[in-house]
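Hello,

I think I submitted the pyridoxal-5'-phosphate job twice by accident. Can you confirm which output corresponds to this input? Input:
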Amino acid sequence: MNLPPFELERYFAVHEFTAKRLLCVSDCQPLTVTELLSLSDGAAEAFAALPLGYADSRGGPALRQAICPLYDTISPDDLLVHVGAEEAIFTFFNAVVSPGDRVIVQTPCYRSLRDVPATLGATVVEWPGRQDHGWIPDLDFLKKALAEKTRAVVVNFPHNPTGALPDLDTFLEIVRMCQAAGAVLFSDEVYRLLEYDAADRLPAACDISDTAVSLGVMSKSFGLAGLRVGWVATKNAQILSGMARIKDYTSICGSPATEFLAALALERRETVLSRTKNITLENLAAAREFMARRQDRFTWAPPKAGPIAFPCLADGGDASAFAQSLLEATGALVLPGRVYGPYASHFRLGFGRAGFAEGLAVLDAFLGES
Ligand SMILES: Cc1ncc(COP(=O)(O)O)c(C=O)c1O
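Support: Only one job matched these inputs. Its output is below.
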């Protein structure tokens, strides 16, 4: 496979661990191992005694059992644990897509959702959202695109990079249209559970469609990206076994150490999720205040969920140049929209981490001077 450079990940490879202030990361403030182990009596001793052999390639039984309550209808046999969500994106498309297949992908998107099927020889149809429509892609477009035989449709709600979230009727209609067209719905739900208003939470696609595949991960809403634990949930046994066959060539299995910690966080999910949500909401208030005060410089569609948003330079300027001069002058990092494709005036803000408000004040001061 001749995969193109993953520009977003290359940008972070250069800057994530050298920039002084991160204003654009997509995860939430991580817990430490000690904080996590302190959530349950006896967990530290059990962790210390854990044998570090291979894990069950499906994901250990305790972990898969702990993932099930995130869904209404999913049992441990409907799950396949992966090393992060990224590995599951790779195994899904390798298992499902053949050269010449048609795949419809909501854009802008986390680029592997588009570039893995394209590299496998699929014809990728981009299904774009627009800022003035709150980044919710248009159902008429999907209806027309599905008129031609389509292997898979890819959606990501809550959305990277915009924080967009459609209403329930829109989501149900997408699921229904995919089912009627015989297209597999791949629903990237890595930011699910981080809705600002819990009433906005969408059902998981795997709970409302027997053919859909839901993608989940510990990295985002749980603030545990370093565990590298992700999974897919689906009642489509054929897809699950196809993915398992591909995974034998990537990671084979995860680590019992991180699976143990992931299961613990899932068992204590109310505590873990409310912590990340509180940090995110506090930072979001600072971002909203900033965007309202600086509307001469920036526009945005305010996010509805998750720790990221996708503002635009109001004068249509070059966000790459803006990001570069901000970094050089202050050490603060924003992510230019070009890494997502034709979004040269946009940039990503990430507000899931502690210290965001201080970073925003640095950006504010920079604007004051420029
Ligand atoms: C929408 C989306 N899907 C998948 C991933 C991959 O997640 P992970 O890094 O946990 O493998 C990311 C990471 O940023 C993402 O934003």
